[in-house]
Amino acid sequence: MKSKLFFIFVSCLFISCSCQCKSTGSNNINKLESFMFIYDINNINLNQRPLIDTLFNYAIEFYSDSTQRLVYVVDGTCSACIGTSLNFLQDYSSIENDVPLFIILKSPDKELFKFYLEKNVDKFNAKGKRTIENLKIITIDEYSQISDGLYFFIGRRLIKHETW
What we know:
alpha/beta
């Protein structure tokens, strides 16, 4: 009797854990979609939005005032932070969008990030693998005072920032 109750308890625990993991992924996709697409670009008064930081201005190419960019800033010396960024990349590559993505690593080099990226490349679908191939990775001083997270720019104006 006790073994049957224990088995039922463990089964329920396993099912609830697996459901939470699946919902977290879809929640992140919903979060990303709403982050980028809640705006009717034509109705944004860009003059009321703050100009971007000098760092972004020099690191990322803005071809016009309507150029859209997503920038993910991450601590490139932190394995857990890199893992979170890889989860973001999987979510980003699973939605339909044409907004270019830049990764800014607060790190002296790209090696640790590339190591984890290569180790996890099999977790990406075909579109995700193309996203990785075209990914623009920029390194900056690891002590930079810029906040980690996702930034959405139109032209040289910050539309939204969110910690990811």
